[in-house]
Automatic annotation (TrEMBL):
InterPro entries: MFS (IPR011701), MFS_dom (IPR020846), MFS_sugar_transport-like (IPR005828), MFS_trans_sf (IPR036259), Tet-R_TetA/multi-R_MdtG-like (IPR001958). This is Major facilitator superfamily protein. Residues 11-398 form the Major facilitator superfamily (MFS) profile domain. The keyword Transmembrane helix applies. One of its GO terms (cellular component) is plasma membrane. One of its GO terms (molecular function) is transmembrane transporter activity. It is found in: Cell membrane. It is a multi-pass membrane protein. The chain crosses the membrane at residues 12-36, 48-70, 82-101, 139-161, 167-190, 250-274, 286-308, 372-392. The keyword Kinase does not apply.
Length: 404
């Protein structure tokens, strides 16, 4: 007879699906976003580039600003309410994107999408407080696979849906899926929440004082930023790099989608296992190992001679992501009191959004000056800086283990 699952385990299934769908929703429109913009008017090439850039960046800029506001409200009203607010808001925004008549309506909705951010950070915060501490690494490791896999599979799925149904119907389909996330969260996710009274809400300096290791937590924010810059710096040039490797012959679009999506396979398999490993040997150790592995993977990407070498290395990127991203979330959870967990995870979400905004810009600039291979080399250098930073910030954890 199978054992009865605990409420937090049931919530984990629902929140994984929610994070997966939010990840897809945010990433699936990227392959055809500029093409959709092009259908909304007659633009010059310069205008199309400008409007596409505005449409892409608007969401992440607004989300970076809005996340701390929603995090403060989450500590006061509960994380489940914030999950419902984000999923319902995004469902309507995506549906409306499918019926816009000009580019400014689309840009306005992309701004609004950023306002309805916070599903990911609040899902992490809810699991961090609901799951037993000894299971937090496993739970958050599983949860992170949802957003990462959604982000990586989104472009491939978006391209398929757009090809089958057109751009507008793809937005509307996504809206209905996000609406299902709202109802699943409403009916199946339970939160044992003890609200923080508005008068008792802590200021930012007071929240930092509440942290068990404030330097470590701030260090994890910076680590999140660098991880996202590293991951996203490759996005603008990936399909162009594939085209160059394939000498402009073959099914470049399909292969590019495969190259972009393949890390998701490794991530789904590796993240829960690495989360459990972190619970046993120390999450900080898994994080450092993941970063060292990332450096070993990024450098050869600059020198591949065929697309299958790139596919193999991208598969290994999924393993390094599975080590790094859940480890950061777990370290934040284990070093944040429950009363301020929502605030901490929302701050981390802001750093993540800034990284997702800066990464493509960095990749575009470097590829313009040093060709595509330069992006992978610069990313490796960035990870080297990060591993030194994390080693310094997690040193007290290793010192404690030696004493015990």
């Amino acid at each position: 007879m199978s054992r009865q699952r605990a409420p937090w385990e049931k919530a984990l299934f629902v929140l994984w699906f929610g994070c997966f769908m939010v990840g897809i929703a945010f990433s699936e429109i990227m392959p055809f976003l500029s093409l959709y913009v092009d259908t909304l008017g007659k633009f010059s090439k310069a205008q199309l580039n400008l409007y596409s850039g505005l449409t892409f960046s608007a969401t992440y800029l607004v989300a970076a600003i809005a996340s701390p506001i929603w995090g403060r409200l989450a500590d006061q009203k509960g994380r489940k309410l914030m999950l419902l607010r984000a999923s319902l808001g995004m469902a309507f925004v995506f549906g409306l994107m499918g019926v816009v008549t000009n580019v400014w309506q689309l840009i306005a909705l992309r701004f609004t999408q950023g306002i309805f951010s916070g599903y990911i950070s609040n899902a992490n915060a809810l699991m961090a407080t609901e799951a037993p501490k000894e299971k937090s690494g496993q739970a958050l490791g599983t949860l992170v696979t949802g957003i990462v896999t959604g982000n990586l599979l989104g472009p491939l799925l978006g391209g398929v849906l757009a090809d089958m149904f057109g751009y507008r119907i793809t937005f509307i389909i996504t809206g209905f899926i996000l609406l299902s996330v709202f109802f699943l969260t409403f009916f199946l996710v339970h939160e044992d929440f003890k609200p923080v009274a508005k008068k008792a809400m802590l200021s930012t300096p007071a929240v930092i004082k509440k942290l068990l290791r404030p330097q470590l937590v701030v260090g994890m924010f910076v680590t999140t930023l660098i991880i996202q810059i590293s991951n996203n710096s490759i996005n603008p040039i990936l399909s162009l790099y594939v085209r160059e490797i394939m000498h402009h012959h073959g099914n470049i679009a399909l292969i590019s989608g495969l190259v972009a999506s393949i890390p998701g396979v490794a991530n789904v398999i590796a993240a829960p296992r690495l989360g459990r490993l972190g619970d046993r040997i120390g999450t900080d150790r898994v994080l450092l190992i993941g970063m060292a592995f990332a450096i070993l993977v990024y450098i050869p990407m600059a020198f591949v001679t065929n697309v299958w070498q790139l596919v193999g290395l991208r598969l290994l990127v999924g393993i390094s992501d599975a080590a790094m991203l859940p480890a950061v979330q777990t370290l934040l959870a284990k070093n944040s009191p429950a009363a301020v967990t929502g605030r901490v995870f929302s701050w981390n979400q802001s750093f993540q959004n800034v990284g997702m905004f800066l990464g493509p810009m960095l990749g575009s600039v470097i590829s313009g000056g040093f060709d595509y291979g330069g992006v992978f080399i610069s990313t490796s250098i960035l990870v080297v800086v990060n591993i030194i930073w994390v080693g310094f910030n997690t040193a007290p954890l290793r010192a404690e283990r030696r004493q015990n």
